[in-house]
Write a structure and sequence with these properties.
single chain, 3 strands, mainly alpha
């Protein structure tokens, strides 16, 4: 079972992705690792619409990801 998304994770990701241009999944994973955010969590954030990428391409370490223009609220994310 995947680890739950904490409010701390949500706020860290919101701050990180709000201040960056699209970034490679690998770079985001490396930058956020010390905050306890791993690839599994980033992929969950893609699935729920918090982050976006080009879904016409396979998702891999080189995929560019960014904050969605319609970022889900914490309340909506914690029930997914």
């Amino acid at each position: 079972m995947p680890e739950p998304l904490s409010l701390s994770n949500y706020l860290d990701c919101l701050q990180y992705f709000h201040s960056t241009e699209p970034i490679r999944l690998l770079d985001a994973e490396r930058d956020l690792k010390e905050r306890g955010i791993n690839r599994s969590l980033l992929l969950r954030l893609l699935w729920c619409g918090f982050l976006v990428t080009d879904l016409m391409q396979p998702i891999n370490a080189e995929s560019l990801i960014q904050l969605s223009k319609e970022t889900p609220t914490w309340e909506r994310l914690k029930i997914q």
